[in-house]
Amino acid sequence: MSVKKPINSAEKNMLDSFISAHFSHLKPLALAAPVVLLAACGDTASVASALNAGAVADGVPTTQVLLPGPDTDGDGLRNQEDLDDDNDGILDIDEGGIDRDGDGFLDADSRDTDGDGTPDARDLDSDNDGITDLRELLADERVPNSLESLDRTLDLLGVGAIDISFPVGNNGIPDIIETAPDSGVLLYPLTDTDGDGLVDPLDLDSDNDTIPDLVEAGGTDSDGDGRVDNFVDADGKGIADSLISAGFTLFDTDGDGTFDFLDTDSDNDGLDDRTEAGPNGSSPTDTDGDGASDFRETDSNGDGIPDGQSNVVFGSPGSIGNGNTNPGPNGAIGGAGGPDTDGDGIRNQDDLDDDNDGILDVDEGSFDNDGDGFPDAGSRD
């Protein structure tokens, strides 16, 4: 039977020297307690910084845990990973969203076009013209027809955001508006219809016809600022509460496939909206007072003659000199053909006082039922 005897001091010193020379680089990893590093709101840079600074000893196992962050659009992805936080079809980077600390909340210097306190990257109507950013995007002619027709289908609740039922992949962008899932490339451009440097979702007058988009969409602009009057946004989504689930109707007066707010001749009468709007685009002229603005009527003064062929004086039905006169199709007032008895440049057919004597033709018993510019045989003589 063998007996273990204790080593003497000389032997111990020899053993220590051997261990020190050959095994000093090893560390007792199994004995070290694991360290959990919390990457608050996904700030993985802070984890790397902690390791590099020696905050955690070499060889100690570490585990990184991501804490929850905000998910503005409710699509299941934190804002930090979501490239379109409000699901309005515009990337946050294109909406001026800034989140330097990666906490999922936008920094104070993020862009807020309409100044309503909600940054554009979280704002469903960034310019507050009553037309949601999503609708202004999909209304453009360059958007694929498959998407344009899906306008209300994508926004199932009519709130200005693509419904979260559409898959978003790993980047937070709905796959249906990308060239391929998670490509990050949209199927449509950010359009600037009038070429003034502002994309339509940020432009209060997208076609530059002096009539605010708000008015062309059927809204009222009593203060002339081009934005929704009496704006209230209790839920902080950037769109007037009065418009959620309802919104303005986008008119296409002439049925040419271009909505009025993008159409410079909404009624297709040959006269541009800028001219027909009169001096105040926020309150467009309604010459005949029938409730339809001239830019939406093809017979603005109700004389039975199409505007493009008659001398329409905006703002003063039946009178001359109070407003802009519309040239006819050949550039001459009243158009081509027909006598001009008083030589004032207006054909008799369009002149309410053919002899310029200050008495209206109708009061003098003059009739021209065939519209040839010559009094009928039954006219008073």
- Rg on CA atoms, Å: 36 Å
Structural class: little secondary structure
State the share of residues found in helices, binned by percent. 10-25%
- Number of DSSP strand runs: 2
First-last Cα distance: 155 Å
Unreliable spans: 28-48, 53-57, 312-336
Number of helices: 7
Strand order of the largest sheet: 1-2
Element order: H for helix, E for strand: HEHEHHHHH
On the 0-100 scale, what is the average pLDDT?
78
**Biggest sheet: strands, sense, closure?**
2 strands, parallel
In short:
The protein has 7 helices and 2 strands, in the order H-E-H-E-H-H-H-H-H. It has helices at 9-23, 44-52, 133-138, 145-148, 151-154, 213-216, 273-277, and strands at residues 35-39, 62-66.
Protein architecture, described:
This protein is mostly loops and 381 residues long. The protein is built from seven helices and two strands, in the order αβαβααααα. Strands 1-2 form a two-stranded parallel ribbon. The protein is rod-shaped, with a radius of gyration of 36 Å. It starts with 8 loop residues before the first helix and ends in a 104-residue tail after the last helix.
